[in-house]
Amino acid sequence: MQDFIEQSLFFGPVISLALYEVGLLIKRRYKLAILNPLLITAIVLIAFLAVSGVEYDSYNASAKYISYFLTPATVALAVPLYEQFKLLKDNLAAVLCGILAGVLTSLVSILLLSKLFGLTHEQYVTLLPKSITTAIGMGVSEEMGGITAITVAVICVTGMIGDMTSEWLFKILRIRHPVAKGLALGTASHAMGTAKAMEMGEVEGAMGSLAIVTAGLLTVIGASFFAQFL
């Protein structure tokens, strides 16, 4: 059985998508923020690989093809933005300032924490793209000499934290405007944050879609500048 799993071209995608679907069902059933489908998938999958003895490289040999859909899925987020284009025009200045503030907060916080904990330059640049989508973050990390695998993990963790904590943070901070919610989620938690924003409403989803693209471009520019500080 182990040999079959390791040699199968379908094992990786099938088990990944099946576990994610189970995670979605659990989230819908219990409606708890901590029951993030991606988190459930990762935990169960790690446990399965450890118990079965299947090597990660064998799993990833077929599962890696799922990531090819990441870029077109990100581009498709432009659809809800187009549907809310008038809202964007009416709030353009506030939208751009909000995204810029979010990007700068992310980069500055990584710089300060890296200095505080004595991280190396390689570790520092690995963390800089933490708040942008994986499709962009991997390229940024690789270009600056970071550890791409860790960058992917950090991006996923950032997205899950945003998904799990956003609702109660909005309540505590009394953030009620749909534009503000969407921008915050898209800027801080990339695609996962935008998926959460879409659950909240069309306006939130549209602003999250805009934030992903804009924050990604600003981070590419900003990360190159901030990389020189450590």
UniProtKB/TrEMBL annotation:
Q: Does the keyword Membrane apply?
A: yes
Regions crossing the membrane = 6-26, 33-53, 65-82, 94-114, 147-170, 206-227
Q: Where's it found, cell-wise?
A: Membrane
Give the InterPro entries listed for this entry: CidB/LrgB
Question: What is the species of this protein?
Answer: Sellimonas intestinalis
- Domain of life, per the record? Bacteria
A cellular component term (GO) from this record? membrane
Q: Looking at the keywords, is Membrane present?
A: yes
Species classification: Bacteria, Bacillati, Bacillota, Clostridia, Lachnospirales
Q: What is this protein called?
A: LrgB family protein
What keywords appear on the UniProt entry? Membrane, Transmembrane, Transmembrane helix
